[in-house]
Write a structure and sequence with these properties.
By secondary structure, this protein is an alpha/beta fold. The protein contains eleven helices and ten strands. Strand 8 and strand 9 form a beta hairpin. The protein is globular. The protein starts with 5 loop residues before the first strand and ends with a helix. About 5% of the residues have low confidence.
Length: 277
Amino acid sequence: MTDRQYTALILAAQRPGITNAIAQAYGESHKCRVPVVGKAMIERVLGNLVNTPEVGNIVISVESPDLLLDLPLVKQLADAGTLRFAKSEQTLADSVFSAIDNAGDDAMPFFITTADNCLHTPEIISYFLQAVSAAGAEAAFAMTPDELVQATYPGTGKITGQHKFRDGIYSNCNIYAICTPRAKHTTELFRGGGQFGNNKKKKALIPVVGMWAFLLYRYGLTTFDGLVRRASKAFGIKVKGVVLPFADAPIDADDIVSLNFIEARLKERETTSDAAE
């Protein structure tokens, strides 16, 4: 790996044929347009990326740019030439692959996130990307120990995607990196939705990593590091699993309950920030 900046890819499209409950509740076409403490979710994600030193250009995967260009920060970055759009495909995996493939190898490496990760911070993103670069990884993902999440926010188990390993329970942070052209095939991990938070989605791993590796993962018979080693072997590349020491990292706006939690947490952050000034 070099010290090149990452191209950030934000996944913002609505799933075909599915009406998102949060978007519907707020009268918006897309969940990422829903305001959280006065700002659209995707504008919060963009603000964090703009303030992350390791991130350069930004790509938004969405059905059409017109769906988002009325948002002030989206338009500002698009006009400045640091933000462009990639047309989303019918599936998440195809959308990720298409966006990366069409951007070309010169856009590598890529940092991938979703438009509802508005609780992330530049510190969280930097920690992840620095770890990926230091490891010379070709692909990477991040998780946070559930013990940390529960100690910080008791009772939040239902709003994080939990994964049981032999050495503990981890919550997926929904952030990834694809750093080399030959790592583009790892986009198949998104075929089941990215987080594999339920049994149906977990089964999407079988054709990607093989039955044996899947069974070890599915029934918690491998360690976190063991999963990383098996992923590296399955894909034939160097995969890095980054353990993030941030309780906020695995919490995104999947439903009204998690959205309300995020709003409360952001208000708390802003109150603390105002008090410190």
